[in-house]
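Supplementary Methods S3. Complex input for the magnesium ion-bound model.
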Amino acid sequence: MAKIIVVTSGKGGVGKTTTSAAISSGLALRGHKTVVIDFDIGLRNLDIIMNCERRVVYDFVNVINKEARLNQALIKDKRADNLYILPASQTRDKDALSKEGVEQVLEELAKDGFEYIICDSPAGIEHGAFMALYFADMAIVVANPEVSSVRDSDRILGILQSKSRRAEQGERVEEYLLITRYSPERVAKGEMLGVGDVEEILATKLLGVIPESESVLKASNQGIPVIHDQESNAGKAYSDAVSRLLGDNVEHRFVTIQNKGLLQRLFGRSA
Amino acid sequence: MSIFDYFRTAKKDTASIAKERLQIIVAHERSQRNQPDYLPKLQQELIAVIRKYIDIDQDQVDIQLDQNDDCSVLELNITLPELHERH
Ligand SMILES: Nc1ncnc2c1ncn2[C@@H]1O[C@H](COP(=O)(O)OP(=O)(O)O)[C@@H](O)[C@H]1O
Ligand SMILES: [Mg+2]
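Predicted complex, serialized as structure tokens:
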């Protein structure tokens, strides 16, 4: 049975698309047939992060409107064998996503044998974000360690617990917290909320902590999801998060200040 | 100890301030979350009535619905201004 996972946050620019690309790639690299859907209608950028923007012919809305078949719109990833991307449309109005339409596409994907369906949510708590989370079995709530982001995450958790399909059926969406853009140095200086603070306030299971890392921009410049860069701390941290998603018990790394190696100290570079 | 040192040690680090603010915001929002939709309007109308008699601000009225096992309690808290300000 397919597992539907929404990557959501409320606030924009916190790392949902980066995370969707990384987690879906990570699951596919471990042999799971995975599809990642861009729900950000009108502002699509998952295709850019995944470097398939020039291969987009049909999109999610075309499929919902029956202007294209699902397998015409799905783009096969060039890096991970088991990964497909369903891009968002660029221009249409954002109400194009109907509940019935989304449900049909999700059901067809499940029938096609996809094990994981990752939904990259748009920002906000409006229609698009609601459609992305409504059918979810599991939610990855992405938060940056700052007040507005954590507050918005709490709101999204509230919506998951009251307005999702699972909630309507008296069940619970499995919720995970992913803290991104984390800087242990700044936490040590008292300039940034720590992992423990955010966990305590949101009272949600921690899926991972992704450090603030230059490699994320480098990866997006090239259209390579950062999880492929296993030299980088962000890539490693995303890998760990995928392991935890699959049920492994992996210790959290990159949450405390790391001692820099001699070479790094000499040249003053950080990972 | 210079005056600057004094300010440095007396000032809380910004992360602790962030945490305290968040705890308050989140607690407030959670308490409002499962409230019926009519509550904000009820609050507005109550404020209008109270203002006929007492000069109060929006944030001096706190309205909350608490669900108990077999009944709900509508709790209304009004902070009155200083005595000499009263009409
Ligand atoms: N761990 C990180 N370190 C550094 N920059 C990051 C990190 N995660 C995300 N970013 C940057 O933050 C910006 C927003 O990320 P994105 O994934 O598009 O957020 P969202 O989808 O939530 O709007 C991008 O420029 C991205 O490169
Ligand atoms: Mg995005």
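Chain B has three helices and two strands. Residues A 9, 12-18, 123, 180-181, 210, 212-213, 216-217, 220, 234 surround adenosine-5'-diphosphate (ligand 1) (CB under 6 Å).
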